[in-house]
Design brief:
Layout (H helix, E strand, L loop, with lengths): L3 H15 L4 E7 L11 H4 L4 E7 L6 H13 L4 E3 L6 H9 L5 E7 L5 H9 L4 E5 L8 E4 L4 E4 L3 E2 L7 H9 L11 H14 L1 H8 L5 H11 L11 H13 L11 H4 L3
Parallel strand pairs: 1-2, 1-4, 2-3, 4-7, 4-8
Antiparallel strand pairs: 5-6, 6-7
Helix pairs in contact: 6-7, 7-8, 9-10
The chain binds guanosine-5'-diphosphate and magnesium ion (MG).
Length: about 260
């Protein structure tokens, strides 16, 4: 999982990139828009126009996304909701309106869709227009139209994992990848969060089960994940389960709501 070294290096890198821009587009996963938020964002993005992008809205629970949108807007944040397939022109208009001389940086946690969103925004007519001065070699400006340019490499943020609950939500959206996590407790917690919100989905897959271990027993068997000797390969089963969740294969889901986290 992420360690202090990771986090420190990433922060330094972001601070360097932020200096070159006047806009920061913070991509989050719409299924967990608080958990995937930048830690210490006020400090990191100080003095910049910032926009929060709820990505993967196609696989989030629409009514929950609306709650988050309302919640953040009422706190004065700019929110843009997007998904696979959105067109560059529409996005540019929504995000930047008539602004000119836009220089933007895209940031976010691993796997929230920074690269996908960058490509979506770029559209087809954008061109590389040279190195970004003052930052690590190889980082380029991409000119999208007369008024907007973006940095070609998104900045990666790592959250300070201050609770198991937070880590579990990041596991559910694939920002922490199950293969890299040797923590059974967080997997169990993630399963419990999902089941608490969507009991019917779990029941439809395996019937009534009392815990994650039992779930994997049924889920693994159902998918033919049997080891020599007839035992279920629970590790493989768990990997498949979480990948199905990441990709929205179990249907549209959201893993947190504003009123569970904030007093409103
Ligand atoms: N359903 C859905 N999947 C998305 C969306 N945006 C990105 N993804 C998927 O999420 C995964 C991570 O995306 P990527 O752009 O590589 O994330 P990055 O690590 O933040 O750059 C990939 O499998 C993408 O296909 C979206 O809007 N909807
Ligand atoms: Mg990427």
């Amino acid at each position: 999982m992420w360690n202090a070294g990771h986090i420190q290096r990433a922060k330094k890198k972001i601070a360097e990139l932020v200096k070159a821009v006047n806009y920061v587009l913070e991509v989050r996963d719409a299924r967990a828009p608080f958990a995937t938020g930048a830690y210490e964002r006020e400090k990191l993005f100080r003095g910049k126009k910032s926009v929060i992008i709820f990505n993967k809205s196609d696989i989030a629970d629409e009514s929950v996304t609306e709650k988050w949108e309302y919640f953040y807007r009422s706190r004065g944040e700019r929110i843009i909701i997007t998904k696979k397939g959105d067109r560059s022109r529409k996005l540019l208009k929504m995000i930047f309106g008539e602004a000119s001389n836009v220089r933007a940086l895209i940031v976010g946690l691993p796997n929230v869709g920074k690269s996908s969103f960058t490509n979506r925004l770029k559209g087809r007519r954008s061109t590389k227009v040279g190195a970004v001065p003052g930052v690590t070699r190889g980082v380029q400006w991409i000119q999208i139209n007369d008024s907007v340019r973006i940095i070609d490499t998104p900045g990666i943020l790592y959250s300070e994992l201050f609770s198991k609950e937070l880590a579990a939500k990041l596991l559910l959206v694939g920002s922490i990848v199950v293969e890299k996590l040797n923590d059974w407790e967080i997997q169990e917690l993630a399963f419990d969060i999902l089941r608490r919100r969507y009991p019917g989905v779990v029941k439809d897959m395996v019937g009534e089960v009392s815990n994650f271990d039992e779930f994997l027993e049924f889920f693994g068997r159902k998918h033919g994940m049997i080891l020599k000797g007839g035992l279920v390969d629970k590790e493989r089963a768990s990997h498949k389960f979480f990948h199905d969740v990441y990709n929205g294969k179990l249907g549209r889901m959201s893993f947190e709501e504003p009123e569970e986290i904030f007093e409103i």
